[in-house]
Amino acid sequence: MGATGSEREADNRNLAEEGPLATLFSGPARTRIIEAFVANASRELNVSDVARRSDTARSTVYRHIEELERLELIEPVGEGTKRYTLNSDDEIAALLRKLEGTVLKRLLEKET
Asked: Tell me: the pLDDT tens digits for 10-50?
């Protein structure tokens, strides 16, 4: 299901006001949810998995999942209980995985 005209207008306002990265991450909960998907890129996660891994309420995860799916950062997989995975074909997802590895490497170097 695509976004309505008013939803697209709101998205465009957010993007214009906050910038693309602020719009993508939009706050601590969304950032933790994205991190849960990036850190578990090869796994299929249901909402409870994401909530547990991101230390976020399930109701909050539900709100953000829809937007992340619309952005094609994650995609639904399987049948039955809805599960999601990081979209391996998405350029932003690939960059986030690379960034995670680079940041981790830098942090480990700073500890030594």
From this structure: 555 655 577 877 777 788 899 999 999 999 988 999 999 99
| 49-55 contacts, C-beta under 8 A, 24 or more apart | 50/84, 54/29
Instruction: For strands 74-77 and 83-86, give the pairing.
Output: antiparallel
Decide if 31 contacts 46 (C-beta within 8 A).
Answer: no
Task: Write the DSSP assignment of 43-60 as a string of letters.
Answer: S-EEHHHHHHHHT--HHH
Would you say residue 2 lies in a domain? no
pLDDT tens digits along 79-101: 777 999 999 898 988 888 888 87
Please give the tally of structural domains in the chain: 1
86 forms beta bridges with 74
For 23, the domain range is: 9-111
Distances (CA, A) of 85 to 5, 12, 42: 28, 26, 7
